[in-house]
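Me: Here is a favour to ask of a fellow structure person. Could you put it straight underneath, so I can go through it closely?

Assistant:
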Amino acid sequence: MEDISLHLLDLAQNSLSAGATLIELLIQEDSEKGTMTIVIQDNGYGMDEKQVRKITDPFFTTRSTRKVGLGIPLFQASAEATGGQLHIISCLDVGTKIEAIFHTDHIDCLPLGKIDDTITTLIYLNPGIDFIYSHKKNDKQLLLDTREIRSVIGDISIANLSVIDWIKRYLIEGLKEINGGV
């Protein structure tokens, strides 16, 4: 994967395949520590302890359509390449939480990428799923919660192109603000 946002797109797809109706994507950047912590949490089917232990093996997958699952092992490798780490917590019938820590000052740290495109695409392609995207950088925060958007737009589909356009612009402006107007 060429950037972290593509990893998040893949991991969100795992959550969707696991029956999640709520997916939280949380990014915490700490410039002082030189770290970026990424959490993806869902309320899907979850995994038992045996599956959690095996999930970072590229030759293990919970899918029946193929014999390999590279998303989580590649995400783990990307974090570990920076001296970071990956943790997975999962409970059957509760959901899964994946947390990765990247050391952003490391030469092998992938760029975040077009996270606005990733979030917008997830919402557009999955209008029946709720997403929470929280991005903190030092003392600034961007928060998008599709449940709040739905309460404002009423009967209009969240996949309506005007709504998606507003979401995209909101994310772009919010990211500019937390990045110091860059």
About this structure: The mean pLDDT is 92. Helices lie at 4-17, 49-54, 71-80, 115-125, 146-153, 161-178. The longest strand covers residues 22-30. DSSP finds six helices and six strands in the chain.
